[in-house]
Description:
The protein folds into three domains: 4-60, RNA-binding S4 domain (Structural Genomics Hypothetical 15.5 Kd Protein In mrcA-pckA Intergenic Region, Chain A), CATH 3.10.290.10; 66-129 and 213-236, Pseudouridine synthase I, catalytic domain, N-terminal subdomain (Alpha-Beta Plaits), CATH 3.30.70.580; 134-210, Alpha-Beta Plaits. It has helices spanning 7-13, 19-27, 93-97, 120-127, 147-155, 190-197, 229-233, and strands at 4-6, 31-33, 36-37, 44-46, 51-54, 57-60, 66-71, 101-102, 111-117, 135-141, 170-173, 178-183, 202-210, 213-214, 224-226. Helix 1 crosses helix 2 (19-27). 21% of the residues lie in helices and 27% in strands. By secondary structure, the protein is of the alpha+beta class. It contains seven helices and 15 strands. A hairpin with a 2-residue loop joins strand 5 (51-54) and strand 6 (57-60). Uracil binds at residues 106-107, 110, 189-192, 205.
Amino acid sequence: MAKKLDLERILHKQGFGSRKLCRIMIINEEITVNGVLCDDPDMEFSLENLSYTIKGEPWEYREKSYLMMHKPGNYECSHKTQHHPTIYSLLPFPLVERGVQCIGRLDEDTTGLILISDDGQFIHRMSSPKHKVPKVYEVTCKHPVSDAQIAHILNGVQLVDEDAPIAALACDRISEHIIHMTLAEGKYHQVKRMVAAISNRVDGLKRIRIGRLSLPDDLKLGEWRWLSDEDIANLSAS
Length: 238
Ligand code: URA
């Protein structure tokens, strides 16, 4: 039988504040469930396909949250930021309240695709070095990129503090200054360090793909959206 829960607990689990606060919102007639006003905090609902509104804003019940964001520059991927606002300030507060975390960090000046979730197992699986999901970066270099530099990146560059040289899985020149670099690892400042190791410099960095999931063209800087089942399937390694 489908799991049922009372409305007060449902809203609390979904990140809308303390049980007491959720109870008050319900009694104040601020909630509709599946299209019908509900002012009884103890009324139980099946969690399957449950939709509700809070002060007119529509939501769907989600056991876990899986999102993608187009990270803007000058935002930090941390809950405790040092110099810039946090990317979590771009999300609705109930998601932050649910404890969502980004999966791997992008530097504050890097833009592009970042995944965010509150599913610990998913975060662990996606960030595990064993998982090796390829990530594609669009790199704008300060100096024109030569064939020799591309060959060097593909053959492997030696980074300080690494035992062995690290090679990109792919490196394609898009224009004189722009390359698409595919990496299997997510080491600290990896793209910037690899580009520095070939005597060039990163002037702009954007992550455009994770696995087979591309940053959607219509997801603007600073916007986020829920991952579909298809998006999640596209996050496998190949
Ligand atoms: N590599 C970097 O150098 N910076 C990032 O933000 C991501 C990958």
